Amino acid sequence: MHPWIADRTAAFESSGIRKVFDLAAKLKDPINLSIGQPDFDVPGEIRTAAIDAIQSGKNAYSPTQGIGPLREALRAEIAAKYPHEDRDVFVSSGTSGGLMLAMLSMINPGDEVIYLDPYFVMYPALLKMCGGVPVPVDSYPDFRLDPAKIEAAITPRTKMILVNSPANPTGVTASEEELKAVAQLAADRNIALLSDEIYSRFFFDGDFVSPASFNDQTIVIDGFSKSHAMTGWRVGYVHGPAEIINTMLKVQQYSFVCSPQPAQWGALRAMEVNLDGHINDYRRKRDLIYDGLSDKYEISKPGGAFYVFPRSPIPSGAKFVERAIEKGLLIIPGNIFSKHDTHFRISFAASDETLHRGIEVLRSLVSGG
Question: Which residues span the domain enclosing 171?
Fold first, then answer.
């Protein structure tokens, strides 16, 4: 390693997902079921609002906590759902920025953070940057949020429990009972509870439930990237107890500074856009991919997000992904998200034509398909 490079960067690898994206750029007409972002464009009225902001000169830094109108609209929406006495909100530079600020603000070296395996790739990397200790809890084979497993993983060093529902990479949604039990466990043990809710609007069966409904100290991270296809705009938001929010703002002042101001005006307009059509379309895509593969692959039916996480038909998920790529199908090996190399991730955020082509290849890769 180059002598100028900091030791902390050796604690984690570059994202394996990015490596697949790089490979996609080299293939001619790939069947791309790897990308974790919507396949629809940003709705026109949101684009217009951002353009209008640019044209009218709203191009400078915003306040670190976000533009006043967006923050007030978020505060009103959050207060209606969670009428807690102590709950504030600020606008972050994407949900990834919110995650980083949360870790930097709450995790000391040696602090342990519990989360499920499989997990979003950023969780252990961010923790290691802060000197924290990742404590992944195995959730195979059904990927449920099991309160008993969470409780068993708690030690005197446990600082935080991190939950993600609907989950990336599995698409599995935690039940109200599971979330309530974990929320109560965190409250009883005085452990921080961080809820990553970026896929909260992609909830296909029943109504979305947040652990903040059961624990008023829950810190929630959400945003507009996935729901409104604004992945490149970098507008997220975080809400929770005021002292935690103020500390995260202090760190944001010396790092991200603020979310891009024109994008925040777009996000304000986004709060008025009805997404029912897109959500119904993704529910249909979920059913299309599940019904097309569930007789050939072991799959836990996703209740949200836009991923399925099938079991590989051969012992190594990574080896199976290599076979799929040889057929022009881009999917993500499960060991990027897990200590296990037994599964692979499919994103069904794609056109119906692409999904049908992907199903055809995946069925052909199974004997008798």
Answer: 60-270
